[in-house]
Write a structure and sequence with these properties.
The protein is mainly beta. The chain contains 1 helix and 17 strands.
Length: 292
């Protein structure tokens, strides 16, 4: 490896991945009821929920570890804006830790969680200082101040490789990373099977693991531009209790977009899968961070 090139890991944001060693079939035409027992009818989801978000990554190169704090919003599904007239928002909070080997260009995850919320107040992307969520995290960027409708725990493992020149992963020019979650909580009344009747909560919660997808991963080169200062104040300063320095590869901000998918594992038939994942990683040259 040339000394002029430093691979930087951006374990990035909210995108689905195909889990190896499982026979997965995407669950099509299922339903999401954005307000539960409220007045909005369940919305038919053809295949996926669209997501966008921001994350702060802190790499400890001495110990070969990283920590990530991320917030996300899903403002539509299958490329269609909105959820059947629902004026609120579906949001999520992500925390993940893992190991990073910059020399060999590899990464894997060790712990973390993903909490999904529905909020009748559309305040994602704003300063939402106030109460704490059930994990005692402060209200952060409007991502965790609604009603929690699902929670997932990181399954140790996953990972991926750096793609410095963008040749290996079409549609994901900076490389691809996978992260596996299993459900720890599914709220009743929000997630409904294709028959329009069976609630996901009524099925045995054996394991929820994640699906497949790609996303655009972008290093935020100018974090002084709105809305990033709000995110930094909310996620880095208040949630993480840390200081933002914007000094890659040690400390950096990333943005991206991806999808949620719900998958069904044939064996056992009651096993469900929900996708969320991370993508990223790029080579840093002396003149540029990402190869577009």
């Amino acid at each position: 490896m040339k000394k002029k090139i430093l691979p930087v890991f951006l374990p990035l944001i909210f995108v689905l991945f195909l889990v190896p060693n499982y026979s997965l079939a995407y669950l099509n035409n299922w339903y999401l009821d954005p307000d539960g027992a409220g007045g909005i009818d369940p919305v038919l989801i053809g295949e996926l929920l669209d997501t966008v978000g921001t994350a702060w990554i802190r790499n400890d190169l001495t110990n070969g570890t990283f920590v990530e704090y991320g917030t996300f919003i899903t403002s539509g599904h299958d490329g269609i804006p909105g959820y059947g007239g629902y004026t609120g928002q579906i949001t999520a909070l992500l925390y993940a830790t893992g190991n990073v080997d910059l020399l060999n260009g590899t990464i894997d995850f060790t712990s973390g969680y993903l909490d999904v919320y529905t909020d009748a107040t559309a305040d994602y992307g704003t300063n939402t200082d106030g109460l704490a969520d059930y994990r005692t995290n402060p209200e952060t960027y409007g991502a965790n101040n609604g009603t929690r409708i699902a929670s997932f725990s990181v399954i140790p493992g996953g990972g991926g490789n750096v793609d410095p020149d963008g040749s290996q992963f079409p549609g994901a020019p900076n490389g691809q990373i996978t992260i596996n979650f299993e459900a720890s909580y599914i709220a009743p009344g929000y997630w409904i099977m294709p028959d329009g009747v069976t609630d996901f909560n009524d099925l045995p919660m054996i394991s929820w693991i994640l699906g497949y997808g790609t996303t655009n991963a972008s290093y935020v080169t100018n974090p002084d531009v709105f809305p990033y200062p709000i995110f930094i104040d909310e996620a880095v300063v208040e949630w993480a209790g840390d200081t933002f320095t914007n000094q890659p590869p040690y400390d950096l901000l990333v943005s991206g977009n991806g999808q949620f998918r719900v998958d069904v594992v044939p064996e056992p038939a009651t096993m469900l899968l929900l996708g969320a994942g991370l993508i990223g990683l790029a080579g840093i040259g002396r003149r540029k961070f990402f190869k577009k």
